[in-house]
Amino acid sequence: MTRLAINRLKERRPDAAAVDRFLARHEVPIVEGDRCTFLWRGEADEVFLVQRIVGLPELLPLRRLWGTDLWYLVLELPVGSRINYQVEVRRGEHVERGNDPLNPKLSYSPVGTSSVCFAHGYATPDWTEPDPDARPGELTELVVQSPALRRDSRVALYLPARFRRTVAYPLLVVHDGDDFLQYAAAKTVLDNLMHRLDVAETVVAFVQPHDRLSEYADSAAHARFLTRELVPRLEAELPLVGQSSGRCLLGSSFGAVASLSAAYRAPDVYGSLVLMSGSFVFTDIGGADHGGGPVFDPVVKFVNRYRARPRRVADRVFVSCGVYEPLITYNRSIVHTFESTGAAVRFVETRDGHNWENWRDGLRDALSWVYPGPQKFVYE
Q1: CB 225, CB 216: distance < 8 Å
Q2: Cα–Cα–Cα angle for 219, 232, 138, nearest 5°?
Q3: What is the pLDDT of residues 214-268, one digit of tens each?
Q4: Cα(336)–Cα(105) distance, rounded to whole angstroms?
Q5: 3.30.2350.10, 3.40.50.1820, 3.90.190.20, 3.40.50.720: which CATH number matches 126-370?
Q6: Model's pTM, two decimal places?
Q7: C-alpha distances in angstroms, 227 versus 38, 218, 310?
Q8: Among 90, 186, 192, 293, whose CB has the most other CB atoms within 10 angstroms?
């Protein structure tokens, strides 16, 4: 195997000018096969890579290259991996944590940004980028008065580019709609996938919670809002299929719990579910503390109950999760629960973590399986 760039630099006993040239020649992190070299430059007592790959310590120490102010860490990452990370720098009692100043690539989320490493074999899918040839769908805002939620609920409604009143369309309801639109490029993805005929032309309702940790944690009120208020209104006002084969709920993390919980309460209403990195934490084996705090208590109670007495909640269930997430074990387990009910299940594991780019990258697999292109999809 060719020697790593950092090892070649070490052998030359570099000075500051050599480090300058080294950094000018290489993109950071330096990706060489399955090895990724993370770098930081400056004076410090300790430097750590902060990451959340399950099975590894959250803080991985960087080593200082002797005689220089360059710090490095070589991490083995399988082909196709993508990880978010930050750098923690300690000087005496002072600790700073932030994004990698040597890496311009960023991952975005509602809680801020982080640096991102693309391992060998990962590339941002082209269908997540704007395509000038794809006709754009229309995004409008709808306000639904919800007695169930005791508030007005704002919904962003997507109509496909060639929308016509004479055609019946399937319906997709997306939890955390604003975040999917902003951080997972959902409108661009929909425009592109429908333009390429990967996905059937679909009406999409992006719902937004007021308090997601409450409304999405097995909330009967949220389930009533979806099934008795939102879906009937959309089917009354728009040309929709109007039967279970043309209704799908999609959510990630707590949004996946909300999707499953709503379908559990209305098992004949939704034909498909898309559950991404679901927070399906359970304690029915051994009765151990779930460790998620009080917000997870209703989730754990619901998942324990469902695992004990599973029932078919949809005909088709798409499940995905990153192998670097702590949730991977729970998601692998619940796949077998869904299969035991007779539902058609597709499970996809990604070399990624709990983040919006992971869920964005999974949209084509999910939607083309649930609502495949017009030449394939037949409503029963």
Answers
A1: no
A2: 100
A3: 999 999 999 999 999 999 999 999 999 999 999 999 999 999 999 999 999 999 9
A4: 37
A5: 3.40.50.1820
A6: 0.94
A7: 48, 14, 20
A8: 186
